[in-house]
Amino acid sequence: MDLLWRDADADPGGGTRRGARQGLDLDRIVRAAVELADAEGLAGLSMRKVADRLGFTTMSLYRHVPGRDQLVDLMRDAVLAELAEPPGTHDEGRGEERGEEHREGHGEGRGEGRGEGRGRGWRERLEASARQGWEIRRRHPWLAEARGVRHLPGPNAVAHYERMLAAVAGTGLSPSEVLAVVNLVGRFVDAEALQLVEAAEAERRSGVSDEEWWGARQALFERFERYPTITRLWEEGGYDHPEDSFAFGLARLLDGIELLVRRRSGAEVSDETRDETSGCRVCGTPVERPASGRPRAYCSPACRQRAYRERRAAGAPRTREAP
Amino acid sequence: MDLLWRDADADPGGGTRRGARQGLDLDRIVRAAVELADAEGLAGLSMRKVADRLGFTTMSLYRHVPGRDQLVDLMRDAVLAELAEPPGTHDEGRGEERGEEHREGHGEGRGEGRGEGRGRGWRERLEASARQGWEIRRRHPWLAEARGVRHLPGPNAVAHYERMLAAVAGTGLSPSEVLAVVNLVGRFVDAEALQLVEAAEAERRSGVSDEEWWGARQALFERFERYPTITRLWEEGGYDHPEDSFAFGLARLLDGIELLVRRRSGAEVSDETRDETSGCRVCGTPVERPASGRPRAYCSPACRQRAYRERRAAGAPRTREAP
DNA sequence: TACACCCTGTGTACGCCATAAACACCCAAG
DNA sequence: CTTGGGTGTTTATGGCGTACACAGGGTGTA
User: Which pLDDT score is estimated for A146?
Assistant: First the structure.
């Protein structure tokens, strides 16, 4: 914990920090561990291997890190630093290389959205955060494996969390709903990344076991005659050109969340929220914008009326039980 | 693999199966292992402990099971047998006790839906499958942990998979979309269960480390002053009465999927699909049913018109390429 | 300058894990 | 009776995290 949050504290540089050479060092350890985990997965990470990689004995690590679990916590946060700032906030040019290739598929039809202004749409921002998390997990798949153990959030993790919350906080959802939404999306990203790990793992253990694996698979698919739907989908080629499961899932998820947001607010939509939503405020049906005049907010009189009724009735956002 | 799928094969009962007492036995091993994992999690499962629990030496297990991984595969499928049949298909009353308490919150407003007929709604069926998976994972949280390793699906897993696919297959989505939807929901259930494991794990390691843990938490929350949104949500009580994260997530997910289904088909809605959707066929807005006469299918003339236009334009249901 | 101390790195050791290999037994088929 | 396979045991190997005692060197103080 102290180690995780030791940013502004201590470390004034006055110590023995001289030749910068052979001293073991928390950062060196963490960096070596990250490299190792990148290459061999979290299961392949051992104190021994980390120490070997640095040319020290195993136990030397324990002078700097309490134990393996805490090392993983540190690795997690070290890596999460990569998304520290969505490039474009102070921090004069340090010239890092950065991958920066994302934003490839972009879900479904839903237009690119021209939101550029200060507020941007919550959906756009939430999606961006999710994609950032996804990119990081593609570079460091073990991040997803590090779930399940005692997970102390570091400063970078919290910062990312805060950013996601901030994106959703302006939607008019209740506090607990905001949290639920962000957790949901976060878990989705992790779950998706876990699938990556699974695939990588399978690939690593390839070679000898691969034929056995595919033999089993083959035998399996022969048994599948009993399962009509699987067989049909197989024959129709559903497995040949699979969807991009991350993009697909994210789109569904955001659609579902958007529906909730619409249902909840529907009414007091300030213009900031408004110009990013692309459909009827009530039901989400895409609504054709007239050639001239003010763009329509509802797809139909029925929806407009419904919105009015809700505005009348609801008043308070039903968040907590009123006294 | 052979072990996993050894259902209808062999085992005619003609062997040495006599006193039914002290022989080690695959089923006994698997059962003991499941008990152990239920109690201590997958990490606490070791060949030694399983053997000890049965009163044999460690190595004796290897006479019946190739290794730990395969044992886990067997455990998984053994446990998945609990959802073999969604109670109500032949199988004369065996009088199992069964939990059967679910269906508590049921998402949001969305009416109970009276679907009882043969087809039932795809959403209802998919949701039921998801809840089944969820219930099983609440009984056996290690199921979620067993992801990530090489995962050979057993007959029960495949049966469940088939059931979910069948639920979605009638929606008019493309084959790859059907697969993506089912995978998405399946992963969601697992991810949600993983969170359970995490909590349980934290609870198990309680006692001494708990104060340290909460101490850290406390110190953490003091740092949170830097994060305005987190602080605000905290102060507004969002963390005090959290949403049921499974129910919430599932509702969002299904909403998103339903939107896709509507967008895809929109048109040729056969009556089977129809009487389960509770809202406007196009936009999903809840539509009040008139006191007398045929229930309305659209919330507004606009939506009716839109449906008509799409019906004109689309023609074929675009599910598979027509000859 | 001398002494003490602490910080860091090391070596050894323990207990846990999965599993390979060789051995012991018992029952049934030849 | 011999023989052989199924079954359980013993012993051993190599990997893991980490506790503990120790060593050496730089530093603060006398």
Answer: 80
Q: What is the b/e burial string over A277-311, where b = at least 16 CB atoms within 10 angstroms of the residue's CB?
A: bbbbbbbbbebeeeeeeeeebbbbebbbebbeebe
Total residues found in chain B within this entry: 323
Distance of alpha carbon A223 from alpha carbon A240, whole angstroms: 19
- List the domain range (segments joined by +) for residue B284: 267-316
Query: Which of A285, A304, A305, A308 to mutate to test binding with chain B, by most B CBs within 10 Å of its CB?
Result: A285
Confidence bin at B199 (pLDDT 50/70/90) = confident
| Distance measured from the CA of protein residue B24 to the C1' of nucleotide C22, in angstroms | 21
Is A275 a domain residue? yes
Q: Is A34 on the interface with B (CB under 8 A)?
A: no
Examine residue B273 and state whether it is found in any structural domain, yes or no. yes
Rg from Cα positions in chain A: 25
Question: In the prediction, which pLDDT does B305 show?
Answer: 57
Residue B240 is which amino acid? D
Determine, yes or no, domain membership for A203: no
Q: Is residue B241 part of a domain?
A: no
For residue A13, pLDDT beyond 50: no
Residue A58, CB, strand D, below 7 Å:
yes
Residue A288: both structure tokens together: 């054709």
The per-residue pLDDT for B239 is: 86
- Contact between A253 and A164 (Cβ < 8 Å): no
Tell me the chain A residues in contact with residue B158 when contact means C-beta distances shorter than 8 Å: 220, 223-224, 227, 230
Residue nearest to nucleotide C17 (CA to C1'): B46
Q: What is the DSSP letter of B297?
A: S
Judge whether A135 and B196 are in contact, CB under 8 Å: no
**Can you read off the two tokens belonging to residue A173?**
């959802």
- The 10 Å Cβ neighbour count of residue B29 is 24
B29-42 pLDDT, tens digit each = 999 999 999 999 99
For chain B, counts of helices (H) and of strands (E): 12, 0
Residue pair A249/B256 in contact (Cβ under 8 Å)? The answer is no
Structural domains counted in chain A: 1
Residues 6+ apart with CB under 8 A from A253: A184, A185, A188, B252, B253, B256
- Token representation of residue B237: 């009580």
A195 CA to chain B: closest CA distance, Å?
A: 7
SS3 B169: helix
Residue A234: CB atoms within 10 A of its CB come to 16
What pLDDT digit, counting tens, does each position of A52-67 carry?
A: 999 999 999 999 999 9
CA A301 to chain CA centroid, Å, is 39
Buried b (16+ CB within 10 A) or exposed e, B31-47: bbbbebbeeebbeebeb
Under 8 Å between Cβ of B184 and A245: yes
Quote the CA–CA distance of B134 and B101 in Å, as a whole number. Answer: 12
Report the distance separating Cα B196 and Cα B2, nearest Å. Answer: 32
- pLDDT at residue A107 above 90? no
- pLDDT computed for residue B293 by the predictor: 55
CA–CA dist A298, A309 (Å, integer): 14
Max Cα–Cα distance, chain A, nearest Å: 75
For residue B21, give how far its alpha carbon lies from the nearest alpha carbon of chain A (Å). Answer: 34
In the predicted structure, residue B71 carries a pLDDT above the cut 60: yes
